[in-house]
From TrEMBL:
Gene3D superfamilies: Vaccinia Virus protein VP39 (3.40.50.150). One of its GO terms (biological process) is methylation. One of its GO terms (molecular function) is histone methyltransferase activity. Residues 48-137 form the Methyltransferase domain. This is Predicted RNA methylase. It comes from Pseudoduganella namucuonensis. The keyword Cytoplasm does not apply.
């Protein structure tokens, strides 16, 4: 009999289909960024743990320098895939693929680096934050400090109002969309600058609830009918170069239940709340936007300075 968390995990994506993992292997931005971050973070002779190993590719990157890698995967199909792939790759013998629940597994010895890529835009669906927070508590109870280095080290999340086209050959359908970054999307108009609503630092304790209310200055007139959610993963901090190795998730665009007409200079107030690892509809249901200051009604007044 499955408990409540196990039922939620199955629903929210803990059993991601094998072909989706194959698609991740073909995502060059993801692969290059993680390879660079792991190459930087893992020093020769280190012990590494990967939580949610999938195909085993990140454990493979770690095995280039590590003396031992524990690769934990909950999905039995992916356990077979990872073992098969690692058996035909260099240093694969250093990786032990373990069929276990990341919420419960603890390595038999202290480790230096923990890799966890259960990342969805806005930290939804997958259990990245909850898994790491649970692991930190259990690790300190068993081994004491210090905690290992976590990869990613931090996550920056932002939101941005949009005017989004939802016409599909004449069929109007406001749907959730995932868009590539650094690409101009002809049906998307940015109505204001993005605002950061949360910074997750995995070296510190993190809450699982996000509740935010912020204001935007409309840069142009139009209809705000969607919010873009931006998730920037700080995979590794390169202190000696004063830089970071980052990976930016695809943008997630959620339609607003009630679109809002704005004019340039208006102040738009946006609010939402959701739980880390929760469903996309749970965020969408809480999403609100309202004009709280109309620039046209106060032509002689100086606008407030909102970030």
């Amino acid at each position: 009999m499955l408990n409540e968390r196990e039922i939620e995990s199955c629903y929210l994506g803990q059993f991601i289909p094998v072909h989706y993992h194959h698609n991740m292997l073909m995502d060059q931005n993801r692969m290059h960024s993680f390879k660079a971050a792991i190459h930087y973070a893992v020093k020769p002779g280190m012990k590494v743990l990967e939580l949610g190993g999938g195909t085993g590719v990140l454990s493979y990157f770690a095995a280039a320098k590590a003396s031992k890698v524990y690769c934990v995967e909950f999905n039995p199909d992916m356990v077979k895939e990872a073992r098969k792939f690692l058996a035909i790759n260099q240093n694969g013998e250093k990786v032990e693929v373990i069929h276990a629940d990341a919420f419960e597994y603890m390595p038999p010895e202290p480790v230096d680096v923990v890799i966890c890529e259960m990342i969805h835009v806005a930290m939804l669906r997958e259990k990245q934050v909850e898994v790491i927070e649970s692991f930190k508590r259990r690790y300190l109870e068993r081994f004491g400090g210090p905690l290992p280095v976590f990869l990613p080290e931090a996550v920056i999340m932002a939101a941005q109002p949009l005017q989004q086209e939802y016409d599909f050959e004449g069929f109007h359908a406001p749907i959730v969309q995932f868009q590539e970054t650094q690409v101009i999307h002809s049906g998307t108009v940015e109505m204001a600058q993005p605002a950061v609503y949360s910074v997750i630092d995995f070296t510190q304790p993190n809450e699982l609830q996000y509740k935010w209310e912020g204001k935007f200055v409309a840069e142009r007139s139009g209809c705000v009918n969607a919010m873009r959610f931006v998730t920037k993963n700080i995979l590794a901090v390169v202190a000696e170069r004063n830089s970071t190795i980052d990976w930016l998730n695809h943008y997630m665009t959620l339609p607003l239940g009630t679109p809002v007409q704005v004019k340039a200079g208006d102040i738009l107030e946006v609010s939402f709340q959701y739980r880390a690892g929760g469903s996309i509809p749970s965020l969408q249901a809480s999403l609100r936007a309202d004009v709280v200051y109309e620039a046209a009604l106060h032509p002689t007044h100086r606008l407030p300075a909102y970030a």
